[in-house]
Design goal:
By secondary structure, the chain is of the alpha+beta class. It has helices at residues 6-24, 74-83, 106-140, 146-179; strands spanning 40-43, 46-49, 54-60, 63-68, 90-92, 97-100.
Length: 181
């Protein structure tokens, strides 16, 4: 009888996926539609994600083009971007919104690299919490023989180590992307 690690694997993979989503919204100096993922626009009285009221494209390396499906929401899109924490200035011509992504300074890149490390550390903490829960479940399972319990604890540790390496790789890729000009 082996211990089931399916729940731990799923939760650890979820922590990695959450990190990828979070890092996708960090501005890198290049146009990336994912930086707008957290922007919500008031649309017919309801707060709606921007990508559900407009198409977002990247015509050039440092330009985002936002084309609303309904032209009446254009003003709301501009207002939502202005009040966001992105620090970008939208330019509207009545039909579309252009977002020029400014070149980042060296200091700004280093600050964002620190933010990447902080997000990676949050993901590692989440993975360690999953490990703790799995280890507790192994210890509470009184029907599991001692050798099987030790093997299950080793498997949980191996799974944890693999996922932490995955987090480190994701963070290293994002830092590399941030620090290359």
């Amino acid at each position: 009888m082996a211990f089931d690690l399916t729940d731990a694997k799923t939760r650890m993979q979820g922590a990695q996926d959450a990190l990828v989503r979070e890092l996708g919204s960090i501005r890198t100096g290049r146009a990336n539609p994912h930086i707008l993922d957290r922007i919500e626009v008031e649309y017919y009285g309801a707060m709606t994600p921007l990508n559900q009221v407009a198409s977002i494209s990247v015509p050039e390396a440092r330009i985002l083009l936002i084309t609303p499906f309904d032209k009446s929401v254009l003003e709301e899109i501009v207002r939502a971007i202005n009040i966001s924490d992105l620090g970008l200035n939208p330019a509207s011509d009545g039909n579309i919104v252009r977002l020029a992504i400014p070149q980042m300074t060296e200091e700004g890149r280093k600050d964002l690299a620190k933010q990447v490390k902080a997000e990676a550390e949050k993901a590692k903490v989440a993975i360690r919490n999953v490990r703790r829960d799995a280890m507790d479940a192994v210890k509470k399972d009184k029907e599991l023989p001692e050798d099987d319990a030790r093997n299950a604890e080793n498997d949980v540790q191996k799974l944890t180590d693999e996922n932490i390496k995955g987090i480190d790789a994701i963070a290293a890729d994002k830092e590399k992307e941030l620090l290359t000009i």
